[in-house]
Amino acid sequence: MRNGSDREILRLAVPAFLALVAEPLFLLADAAIVGHLGTSQLAGLGIAAVVLQTAVGLCVFLAYGTTASVARHLGAGDLRGALTQGVDGLWLAVAIGAGVTVLGVLLTGPLVHAFGASDEVTGPAATYLRIAFLGTVPLLLMLAATGVLRGLQDTRTPLVVAVGGNALNVALNLLLVYPAGLGIAGSALGSVIAQVASAAVFVAVVARAARRQGASLRPDVPGIRAAGRAGVPLVIRTLTLRAALLVTTYAVTLGAVGAREQEVDLATHQLAMTLWTFLAFVLDAIAIAAQALTGRSLGAGDVDGTRATTRRMVRWGAVSGVVTGVLLAAASPLLGPLFTGDAEVQDLLVPVLVVAAVGQPLAGVVFVLDGVLIGAGDGRYLARAGLVTLVAYAPVAVVLALGSAGLVAIWVSFAAVFMGARFVVLVHRARGDAWLVTGARRAAP
């Protein structure tokens, strides 16, 4: 059982790992290229990235919820039903993406000024964000289509698309930022073009599979509404996670004394959070396998198999966290110069990354259990747990900022309080039986 379970986890996790490593390279490439334009541009990218990631991240249920529902239908032997739900998810992505694009472009100014940064920072932030919002629809289509394929136990296709899209993104950024002379606007435009191309490939793959199984490609309003309602708890869960990241960025801005310190702290925080996000995607590979395997096994009614696979994946998550933590700590003195020529940012980045490295083993377990419960369709509990976690963490971060404790202390609170609280609520749920609901559809609790 152990060897078979490990092979199944690896079959899904390895391509997911490679794809998830490629995805955050969109941001890493932007950070490396924009960072050499200047510190104010890099700090502006930090604010723009937080806003954009929040807007798109709230819609991650398009991937996670779709993975769980498609996998359940697959486990129950209903492939046509699985693809029908997948198509509903694509149409929901278009509807939500169109609304977010319009609102995002109109509200770009107020959104970047809400962080209280200087004009030297908010100018580049607004320029980048206004263009980047034009890629919202393709980004959400990528999320939904990826969820369909993962639910079908296919993590290889997302890998191929992610690698191709990332290569195009880097090439376009290098061309548009420097030779074309567009600066930070060129970085945003290059990313949008790459996102449109990737989304087109994803949609074509899902549409072809749906036609083969006789699933309709037309928008089904009741199905789209049902997909939207099912995603509400995951939206709340994701909102609490994004709120914690926003609180962290706000605390960094609030805690700095003077314009120069604020600029350095925000730029350092942007680099550290980009690297944290990169490693989170690495660790999330096992969580992706957890979503697909949990949904499929519960759809097939295999409770014992679900528990056994969960135990194995938790062990994998912990070991992976140790490995990424050691590598990050060892590389911390070398990473700063890759992204910026500012000596102050380079020096401050080292202790922040050491703190992030220490938190990696805990993060590995948290991400796996989060994936297991998402795969089980346990969104309502995850929503409640997210609210509890946010309430525990936000006051600590704000108090540290008001006391001018510094960027390192804020990162200690993020790694220990925020991730620690998530660990407690997820382990508590996983030890019980309430999430082990079987069948093609998860009954509402």
Structure, explained:
The chain is mainly α and 445 residues long. The chain has one domain. 84% of the residues lie in helices and 0% in strands. The model has no long low-confidence stretch (mean pLDDT 87).
Summarize the structure.
By secondary structure, the protein is mostly helical.
Helices and strands, with pairings:
Elements: H1 2-22, H2 25-35, H3 39-57, H4 61-75, H5 79-106, H6 108-113, H7 119-132, H8 136-151, H9 156-177, H10 184-212, H11 221-255, H12 259-299, H13 303-339, H14 343-358, H15 360-375, H16 379-402, H17 407-430
Largest sheet: none
Distance linking N and C termini: 31 Å
Structural class: mainly alpha
Rg (C-alpha, Å): 21 Å
Helix fraction bin: over 70%
Q: Return residue spans where pLDDT drops below 50 for at least 5 consecutive residues.
A: none
Number of helices: 17
The fraction of residues in strands falls at: under 5%
Per DSSP E runs of 2 or more residues, the count of β-strands stands at 0
Overall mean pLDDT stands at 87
Domains, number = 1
- The coarse overall form would be globular
What string gives the helices and strands in order? Answer: HHHHHHHHHHHHHHHHH
